[in-house]
Amino acid sequence: MIRTVLTEIGIFLIPFVVYALFLAATRSGLFVQTSWPVTIVSRLALVALALVIAGLVGLAQFSGGGPDSTYVPAHIENGKFVPGTER
């Protein structure tokens, strides 16, 4: 679960990092407040939210077992641990 949360946080930060790299490449003041106007930050936030939503939809669509699979929980057979599987 924590990996999923950290992945989505990373996806959210991508537009801000790209803009910061752009500011660094153009030698505009990266830490100057005028380089981060509210309109730019709000657009970056909207793009970031769209990326997070797309990531969550992709995660829900393409992860997990198939629609007809059955989960067999982890158990012990003959004294050996058998991890959970999908059949």
Please tally the β strands and state the result. 4
Distance between the termini: 23 Å
What structural category arises from helix and sheet content?
mainly alpha
Reading side by side through the largest sheet, how are the strands ordered?
Answer: 1-4
Mean pLDDT: 93
Beta-strand content estimate: 5-15%
Query: Which residue ranges are poorly predicted, with pLDDT under 50 across at least 5 consecutive positions?
Result: none
How would a crystallographer describe the biggest sheet? Answer: 2 strands, antiparallel
- Helix percentage range: 55-70%
Number of discrete helical segments: 2
- Give me the Rg, rounded: 21 Å
Overall form: elongated
Element-level helix/strand string: HHEEEE
Question: Can you describe this structure in just a few lines?
Answer:
The chain contains 2 helices and 4 strands. With 87 residues, the protein is mainly α. The longest helix is centred in the middle third of the chain and has 25 residues.
Can you describe what's shown?
The protein is mainly α. It has two helices and four strands. The strands form two sheets. The protein has a two-stranded antiparallel sheet with strand order 1-4. Strands 2-3 form a two-stranded antiparallel sheet. Strand 2 (75-77) and strand 3 form a beta hairpin. Helix 1 packs antiparallel against helix 2 (38-62). The chain is elongated and about 65 Å long. It starts with a helix and ends with a strand. The mean pLDDT is 93.
